[in-house]
Sequence to fold (357 residues):
Amino acid sequence: MAAESNPKALTRRPVLLNKIEGSQDVVNMAAIIPKEDGVISVSEDRTIRVWIKRDSGQYWPSVYHSMTSHQNRVTMALFILEMEWLLSTGQDKSFTWHCSESGRRLGSHRTSAWASCLQFDIETRHAFIGDYSGQVTILKLEQDNCSVVTTFKGHSGSITALCWDPVQRTLFSGSSDHSIIMWDIGGRKGTAIELQGHNDKVQSLCYAHHTRQLISCGADGGIVVWNMDVKRQETPDWLDSDSCQKCDQPFFWNFKQMWDSKKIGLRQHHCRKCGKALCGKCSSKRSSIPLMGFEFEVRVCDSCYESITDEDRAPTATFHDSKHHVVHMHFDLTRGWLLTSGNDRVIKLWDMTPVVS
Fold:
């Protein structure tokens, strides 16, 4: 039988194209203007600027507006061309939507905590709102009212970024707990896949559905490109036990077994692969488990360590340094450009065109 040839993988490596400087405050979000050499930015001082590339090759602001729909910092704004809506969230615990033509306020919703990020599905008119309590709220929007569809929670920290893939009907959430969760919204199976690849809070997410790659940026300055065209596994729930599930040594709160066995109680740990409750001695090994989302080495029990092969440890993500504290990111699918804005008040444009590796 003839040998099967494996095509070389396409990877994205950011190449810096331009830097936009001159903002008077931290840029909370920015977006590349489709089919134009321009950028729209929203700053912490609630101003919107349109930056146009000049003949000199530099970007200069040509339009300036002030947003007054929020009483505090604007955290996210989305323009929905099909509905002629402008949606926004703010630290005043509110989500609002306006008519982009008339500027008339169409409706609003009060959130339980600071509304930190926002996504929208055009087909179902569902708005996804993440907040600082770690909760995601799904709203059904009408022309002048809205209703709560559901809420869910999975992070131990606040929601710092959301990304919606309308093709796979999947929602990605990033958090201050350094993790990303992929929520299967359309499949109705309740699947939640965890991704761990940042050393600081996840600041922004975007998804390239044609190559099935997720791009994440963190406060650590890292840009991570995740290959989502692999069969990923859910992380197990951590099991509860009063003693090590391998050697049966009591944990430090299990006074009865400590007294009966005349042994000092031990600290409890968990294997990230099987979820068992173990003592430190029985979970002393470390390994990456990329298909479970662990790109960095994590604690595993001895048995699971032996079962993990070199193929299982093959990375499913690539790591890059943006060299600034990223606050927001936007990906232009048509040109393969990535925009990052930082608390250094600088906007950077990157060429993310896939290359053969």
Notes: The radius of gyration is 23 Å. The first helix runs from residue 255 to 261. The first strand starts at residue 10 and ends at 12. The helical segments are 255-261, 302-307.
